Amino acid sequence: MNLPKKHSAADTTIFTVMSALAQQYNAINLSQGFPDFPIDAQLGNYLSEAAQNGWNQYAPMPGLPMLRNAVAKNFQQRHGIDINPDTEITITPGATYAIYTAFTAILQPGDEVIVLEPAYDSYIPNIEMNGGKVVPVALKAPTFEVDWDLVKAAITAKTKAIIVNTPHNPTGATWNKEDWDALAEIVRNTDIIILSDEVYEQLVYDGKPHYSVLQHPELRERSFALYSFGKVFHNTGWKIGYCIAPPAFTQAFRKLHQFVAFSINTPAQYALAAYLENGIQEPVNIMLQSKRDYFLGLMKETPFTILQPAGGSYFQLASYENISDLPDTEFAQWLTKEYGVATIPVSAFYSNRKDDKLIRFCFAKKEETLSSAVEKLAEIGTFQPNP
Ligand code: PMP
Ligand code: GLN
């Protein structure tokens, strides 16, 4: 039977490919972005408490009110932003779903969407699955800042949306206020909608703040902001996120959501709400920054080159140009098989598979995981099995 091809991406996402390869070769998995350290026991206690106390039936379609209220309160406390939990927040089964649903709500066939590359690998298939046309714009290596002139030049009468991501996967780059101002200037007097992927919002390092699209009143009116609890509470497998958008956008979003997912895992929503309400979590950026610094310190003993330390996210890019001139996908496979460390080749984040000889390491791991991995990487050069 001939089934239609819905998008142009690879058959299997690089995250699945590399995690499977890591398992096959018993390699340390620094590829797919997930922590290997435990969640706070209290969060787990709230989850069992919810199941035991009868929170086991469908939650309301937009999300448990207690969770939406807790999210609104949390934004007010952290950023001083007022968000209406009833009309502006929808709980979703992860941010990936929220991004897809936002695209589905706004796109019609032929609409163009500007994607800043390298980009998280679900954006382009999500746009194409909705009949949209991707217009890629390259970020400026090695800092991966936005070239606003290029963005401006990419806008046409068909531009429906721009998707942005800060802190950025895979580069770790973060936006400052001037970036948002530049974006606002470009979209002023247009109907262009912004999708702002802020899943790593609480993972910004070196004392810098995260600037959210929600803090920019002019942009907020035309934006979907997308979040994931997985990155904040180290529970990526819970797959719960949320979408914050103005009431009219939220209505359009929920019109789809009610017939695709309808509602989200109730006990997990209860647990997240209780955990947020009790405000017991330690700031996650302090812990992750120390992991980044530990990893960067260890990496000095290897032949990899760090272009610049990640300003945020779970990820650190490194160049292997001193080691090999293999294409990055082959290099990542070779590293997994021969040295037992799995990473992600950065070409997977470009629609044209641009290969800058960079790989992405996930440092959201226990220190012992990072040190065992880097111990193996440090052997490169002393022992090279046919690179
Ligand atoms: N956006 C970015 C930039 C990501 O790195 C990820 C990875 N998890 C997601 C969205 C998806 O988040 P979730 O697991 O909540 O779907
Ligand atoms: N966001 C994670 C990453 O970039 C993984 C998400 C996924 O596996 N789809 O590694």
UniProtKB/TrEMBL annotation:
Spell out the CDD domains in the cross-references: AAT_like (cd00609)
Domain named Aminotransferase class I/classII large is located at 27-377
What does this protein need as cofactor?
pyridoxal 5'-phosphate
* Record keywords: Aminotransferase, Pyridoxal phosphate, Transferase
The terms under GO molecular function for this entry are:
kynurenine-oxoglutarate transaminase activity; pyridoxal phosphate binding
| One Pfam entry name | Aminotran_1_2
* InterPro entries referenced in this protein's UniProt entry, alphabetically: Aminotransferase_I/II_large, Kynurenine-oxoglutarate_AT, PyrdxlP-dep_Trfase, PyrdxlP-dep_Trfase_major, PyrdxlP-dep_Trfase_small
From which domain of life does this come? Bacteria
> What are the GO cellular component annotations?
cytoplasm
SUPFAM superfamilies listed in its UniProt record: PLP-dependent transferases
Q: Which family does it belong to?
A: Belongs to the class-I pyridoxal-phosphate-dependent aminotransferase family.
Q: What is this protein called?
A: Methionine aminotransferase
